[in-house]
């Protein structure tokens, strides 16, 4: 196995074209301004425009520039860490079950948007797999399965022989599948959402960072390098790429640097023996192992480094080991692509919805599960901007809490990766 010809992102090389956009020049008014052009912001803009609102989306770079254009593409309608019963314990039965129902329906929302807007993003809703990497993690797998099953989710438990067949890997002890999950080409989904939002009447301005957010009478004035937008409502959808626009927001989560590596197209026999049903998987390790096939038979895997020096070489070496361990049938392959992005981790791994001031809302902190939950958050933010939803919100309002010693937590989170690896090994 060698690692020649590393290129940049697989997704930029294989995505559909982005719709043409221009940067904002001049001053204008709108009903709502969305800041950030990932799934959260694009879904918010689409739902607002479909409801007839005059909406302007400002994106500092391009649609899908952040994590939305660079992730693993697994559509997962479940929490990163919590089980549904934990959520009920934390928020009470009514709020907890509303949140559970909202999360459970989030993958269906993604796939229905893809169908309704004819988004060409290699979407496959064939289930999401979470195999147990150790016998001791089967209790966790059963709890997740049983608790989602009790709420009517389309889930199933899989024994050791079954998981070996589904994954093509001999290392797993069993697992569970959520049948409403699946996978997508992440950048194509972001670009498709952008096109759908524009078709519905939204104005999307790329290469247009929001520099300042100022109260202006009963409205907000969002200042950009070439102009400004006045609107009563502003939705912040900047997630791990949040800057200093709103005090304290960037310090309320940990931005974790993560990488992806994609193999070259695997030979037909090998490709047919790995994840033969075409599902993606994220196993029970805390230092995540996630694999998914792309449409041309490459395997795309996620990795979190614990070092900042020589990180790409170190990751290539550890990925070779990981692939050989998980899929011994891969004898020889090149890695064609390695790329990085940031994931916004909250301390408890639950997403956050903030009402920051009158007419100013934010949704973020999906902790690695933002395709389905971020898209649902965008729809929810649009409903808030339209004054819908009443008081029984699916996701509770949270105050912004700056993490103490945030500057230290970011480097420490790399050491945490080592600790997670140790725990995974012990399991
Ligand atoms: C390595 C990795 C793998 C992942 N894999 C998965 C997966 O398989 N499944 C899953 O569900 N989730 C996954 N995720 C998480 C998922 O990608 C994110 O949760 C999701 O993309 C967040 O979408 P978003 O729109 O909230 O933020 P982003 O997509 O990050 O978008 C934020 C945007 O805001 C813009 N911005 C920031 N500041 C400003 C400003 N001042 N003005 C204008 N624009 C601004 C940025 O340029 C950026 O484009 C993964 C994340 C990582 C890092």
Overview features:
single chain, 427 residues, alpha/beta, FAD/NAD(P)-binding domain, eight-stranded mixed β-sheet, six-stranded mixed β-sheet, 12 helices, 20 strands, 33% helix, disordered N terminus, binds flavin-adenine dinucleotide
The total beta strand count reads 20
- Structure ligands: flavin-adenine dinucleotide
Question: Roughly how many Å is the radius of gyration?
Answer: 21 Å
CATH architecture: 3-Layer(bba) Sandwich
CATH superfamily: FAD/NAD(P)-binding domain
- Count of spatially separate domains: 1
Strand content bin: 15-25%
Counting DSSP H or I runs of 4 or more residues, the number of helices is 12
Please tell me what the overall shape is.
globular
Our measurement of the CA-to-CA distance between the termini, rounded to an integer number of angstroms, reads 29 Å
The name CATH uses for the topology is FAD/NAD(P)-binding domain
Strand order of the largest sheet: 6-7-5-15-16-17-14-18
| Helix/strand/pairing category | alpha/beta
Indicate the mean pLDDT: 93
Helical percentage:
25-40%
Low-confidence stretches: 1-6
């Amino acid at each position: 196995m060698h690692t020649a010809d590393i290129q940049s992102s697989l997704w930029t090389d294989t995505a559909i074209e982005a719709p043409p956009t221009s940067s904002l020049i001049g001053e204008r008014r709108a009903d709502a301004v969305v800041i950030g052009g990932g799934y959260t912001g694009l879904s918010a803009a689409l739902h607002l425009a479909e409801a007839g609102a005059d909406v302007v989306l400002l994106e500092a770079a391009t649609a899908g520039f952040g994590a939305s254009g660079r992730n693993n593409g697994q559509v997962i309608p479940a929490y990163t860490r919590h089980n549904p019963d934990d959520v009920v314990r934390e928020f009470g039965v009514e709020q907890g079950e509303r949140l559970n129902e909202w999360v459970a329906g989030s993958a269906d929302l993604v796939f229905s948007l893809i169908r309704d807007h004819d988004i060409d993003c290699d979407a496959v809703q064939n289930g999401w797999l979470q195999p147990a990497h150790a016998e001791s993690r089967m209790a966790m797998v059963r709890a997740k399965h049983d608790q989602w099953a009790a709420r009517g989710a389309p889930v199933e438990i899989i024994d050791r022989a079954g998981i070996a067949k589904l994954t093509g890997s001999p290392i797993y002890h069993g697992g569970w599948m959520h049948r409403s999950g699946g996978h997508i080409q992440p950048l194509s989904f972001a670009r498709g959402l952008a096109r759908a939002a524009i078709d519905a009447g939204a104005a999307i301005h790329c290469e247009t960072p929001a520099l300042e957010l100022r109260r202006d009478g009963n409205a907000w004035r969002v200042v950009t390098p070439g102009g400004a937008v006045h609107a009563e409502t502003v939705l912040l959808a900047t997630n791990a790429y949040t800057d200093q626009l709103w005090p304290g927001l960037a310090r309320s989560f940990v931005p974790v640097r993560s990488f992806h590596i994609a193999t070259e197209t695997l030979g037909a026999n090998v490709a047919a023996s790995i994840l033969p049903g075409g599902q993606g998987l994220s196993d029970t390790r805390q230092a995540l192992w996630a694999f998914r096939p792309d449409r041309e038979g490459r395997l795309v895997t996620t990795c979190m480094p614990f070092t900042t020096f020589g990180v790409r070489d170190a990751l290539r070496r550890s990925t070779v080991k990981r692939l050989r361990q998980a899929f011994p049938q891969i004898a020889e392959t090149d890695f064609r692509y390695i790329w990085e992005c940031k994931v916004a981790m909250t301390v408890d791994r639950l997403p956050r919805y903030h009402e920051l001031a009158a007419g100013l809302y934010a949704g973020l902190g999906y902790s690695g599960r933002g395709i389905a939950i971020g898209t649902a958050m965008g729809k929810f933010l649009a409903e808030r901007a339209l004054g819908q939803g009443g008081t029984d919100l699916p996701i509770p309002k949270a105050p912004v809490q700056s993490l103490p010693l945030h500057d230290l937590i970011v480097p420490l989170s790399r050491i945490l990766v080592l600790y997670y690896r140790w725990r995974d090994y012990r399991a």
